[in-house]
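ok new one. same drill as before - structure tokens go in, u give me an amino acid for every spot. 69 of them this time. try not to just spam alanines like last time pls lmao
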């Protein structure tokens, strides 16, 4: 089985969100903060995929029509 390649990121989050995430881990809803972040990122990308693709296409078309004005 192939190992999934990963990278490390660093970010700042509001204390309130961090505390809520820690509480979910402590309550047993997630194994770790990493799992919460991965789940949140995955859900965001899945729920916004169409919107993001449409925006990227729109930007490409505008660049094709007008260039870097």
């Amino acid at each position: 089985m192939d190992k999934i390649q990963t990278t490390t990121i660093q970010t700042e989050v509001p204390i309130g969100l961090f505390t809520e995430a820690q509480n979910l881990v402590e309550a047993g809803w997630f194994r770790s903060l990493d799992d919460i972040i991965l789940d949140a990122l995955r859900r965001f990308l899945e729920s916004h995929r169409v919107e993001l693709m449409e925006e990227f296409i729109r930007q490409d078309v505008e660049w094709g029509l007008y260039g870097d004005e």
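The chain is about 65% helix and 0% strand. and btw Residues 15-66 form one domain.
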